[in-house]
Specification:
Blueprint (H helix, E strand, L loop, with lengths): L1 H15 L11 H6 L5 E6 L7 H11 L5 E7 L4 H13 L3 E5 L8 H19 L5 E4 L10 H8 L5 E3 L2 E3 L7 H23 L11 E4 H10 L12 H11 L4 E3 L12 E3 L5 H23 L5 H11 L1 H24 L2 H8 L3 H29 L1 H4 L2 H29 L10 H4 L7 H7 L5 H9 L7 H7 L5 H12 L21 H7 L2 E6 L2 E6 L5 H10 L3 E6 L2 H14 L1 H5 L12 H5 L1
Length: 594
């Protein structure tokens, strides 16, 4: 607790010290003169029929931006929500209903991916391209200026985060009041300090604008999947991965003194059970899945921010105990409670000294939180913050315990046979554009050539193979189209990217049969080179050999053969049979996995 308290105190001191440079705000005339880039707003839904209509009507009416469209994702088994969205779409051309081909609910990331694939179809059909992607939820009140601010700052930053603040409620609503306190402190102090010290910015999930180029590159690394469908906090993971790729991120701070703070407003859970459910998802996604997927393999400066994001795994569990000791000590101090006083007599003096330091730090942090809450919500709500701290600590402890139980229960049940990220094409079936459409859109061949190839027998060849064989399409153009269609990055590894040890991750017989060459390990992902689009059978077999997340890279056959020949023939004896411990050398893949 002392270490965590000193950590929080450090952030507070940095916040109170003057910064090296002030945030530069655009003038109103600058916003008016800046060309509006085309923005797509993604809104994933599940059973939001009671609020989505008002949300869309209100936001379309107040947003001071003209070049945007709203794509609303609705599951196949959610007809009431689909009808509510359709009613608004019939009146507002910029609102589009996207029907997910699967029944819901799945995950927010999965629904966002379905919307993204629908946007690609919309672009192909209308000959347009969205340069910025935003995410919002069904209950969000979008600030009128937020799109203009994101458009302005996106000229230099690939991710722009507008602040998110809970709407004010009564003092008696302790659960929602905890959100008001935490977000007031987080958006006023923690995130600006994080940005000042060069830490990666976790996206809030709403009010975040992403450069399309950055998300396309991220999707290429995920085999065409923009958001990780298995992650509970896809927004946090996206912010982390974009920073790891070297993209610049910006948090637009709260501008106090203005009549209306530029922030996305919404109601957070107002009941205990709903708040615990949401917070357990945050702990499971940010702490547990983040630790599982990324570990601590980041630069030293970023390790500190991972520590801050993950320390709640321990502090959330012990804080209620500390609160209980503190309250019992106060009672004993004023009432002479003998049992507590006798117990305290057995403790060494340094425990009391550390306890006093912790109390002093906690008081400083409490005053800072109250000041932050008062600036946004007024003194009346802020004065109740000390009482809400105990309530919030109990919520966080319950949510953390629930997240641990759910995480380890899911981990024990997981077969680990076939991760969904390995073969995203199957999930996108029916929504991904056909190869012929991609070739025509990329102007590789005219539509007449594609139609002629489709009606001919093609001698049993696939469309791309037939066009290359008849010399109507170059191999380079074919692979560019395949890369675009499947969302796979294209090209051979650059010099120095191939790790010879990683090329031996698969047995040589399997590597040759499937034409795959693993060559790099990064952030817990095994990068694999192949001249063919991954098939379901390939993905299943490779998943039984490696428990790492596979990231396929596409390359033309001649480039693949050059690399494969170099590494397969350099050490045939070693590659042909991986070195396994003696007690597992004769086991089958399924036995070894067990």
């Amino acid at each position: 607790m002392l270490l965590s308290g000193l950590d929080d105190l450090f952030i507070t001191l940095v916040y109170l010290l003057p910064g090296r440079k002030r945030f530069v705000w655009p003038l109103k005339g600058d916003l008016d003169r800046t060309a509006e880039r085309r923005i797509a707003i993604l809104v994933p839904l599940w059973n939001e029929y009671s609020v989505i209509g008002r949300m869309l009507e209100r936001n379309v009416a107040v947003v001071q931006y003209s070049n945007y469209d709203i794509f609303v994702g609705v599951y196949a088994n959610d007809d009431r929500t689909a009808r509510a969205v359709s009613e608004v779409a019939s009146r507002h051309p910029r609102v589009h209903l996207v029907r997910h081909r699967h029944n819901g609910p799945t995950s927010k990331g999965d629904c966002l991916n379905a919307i993204y694939w629908a946007i690609q179809q919309y672009e192909a059909a209308h000959g347009v391209r969205f340069e910025l992607i935003m995410t919002h939820d069904a209950e969000d009140l979008i600030h009128p200026e937020s799109l203009r601010l994101i458009n302005w700052y996106s000229r230099e930053y690939a991710m722009v985060q507008v602040p998110v603040l809970p709407l004010p409620t009564g003092v008696g609503e302790f659960t929602h009041g905890v959100y008001c306190d935490e977000f007031a402190e987080y958006q006023t102090k923690d995130i600006p300090v994080r940005q000042r010290l060069g830490g990666f910015l976790p996206a809030n999930g709403v009010g975040t604008g992403f450069a399309r180029e950055a998300l396309d590159r991220l999707a290429a690394q995920r085999n065409g999947v923009m958001f990780n469908p298995e992650c509970l906090t896809e927004d946090y993971e996206t912010g982390f991965r974009l920073h790891a790729l070297g993209y610049r991120q910006l948090f637009v701070p709260l501008r106090f003194g203005e009549p209306d703070l530029a922030a996305t407003r919404e109601y957070f859970p107002r009941r205990w059970r709903a708040a615990v459910r949401q917070r357990s998802r945050w702990v499971g996604g940010i702490v547990l899945q983040g630790w599982q997927h990324f570990g601590w393999r980041v630069p030293l400066r970023q390790k500190y921010w991972l520590w801050r994001d993950r320390k709640g795994l321990l502090s959330n569990l012990i804080t209620p105990l500390a609160n209980g000791l503190f309250l019992s000590g106060l009672i004993a101090l004023f009432t002479g409670w003998d049992a507590v006083l006798r117990l305290a007599g057995f403790l060494p003096k340094w425990v009391f000294r550390v306890g006093l330091v912790n109390v002093a730090i906690a008081n400083v942090q409490l005053v800072v939180r109250m000041c932050c809450a008062a600036r946004i919500y007024g003194a009346k709500l802020a004065w109740a913050a000390p009482l809400r701290i105990f309530w919030g600590n109990m919520m966080n402890c319950t949510a953390t315990f629930k997240a641990l139980v759910q995480f380890f229960h899911a981990w024990l049940k997981t077969d680990h046979l076939y991760p969904t990220q390995v073969y995203p094409e199957q999930a996108a079936a029916g929504t991904r554009p056909r190869l012929g459409e991609v070739l025509v859109r990329m102007r590789c061949v005219p539509m007449s050539v594609v139609e002629e190839a489709l009606v001919s027998g093609r001698n049993g060849l696939r469309l791309g193979e037939y066009l290359v064989e008849t010399r109507k399409l170059s191999e380079e153009s074919l692979y560019q189209a395949l890369s675009c269609q499947a969302g796979l990055p294209l090209g051979a590894p650059r010099q120095g990217e191939v790790n010879p040890r990683m090329t031996r991750a698969f047995p040589i017989q399997i590597a040759k049969r499937w034409k795959v060459l693993p060559y790099r390990l990064e952030l817990g992902q095994l990068h694999v080179l192949t001249p063919n689009l991954p098939t379901e059978e390939m993905a299943r077999e490779l998943a039984t050999i490696s428990k790492l997340e596979l990231r396929f890279h596409l390359t033309p056959p001649r480039h693949f053969e050059e690399l494969a020949q170099r590494y397969w023939e350099s050490d045939q004896a070693t590659v042909s049979r991986p070195q396994l411990p003696k007690h597992t050398a004769t086991r089958s893949p399924s036995q070894a996995r067990t």
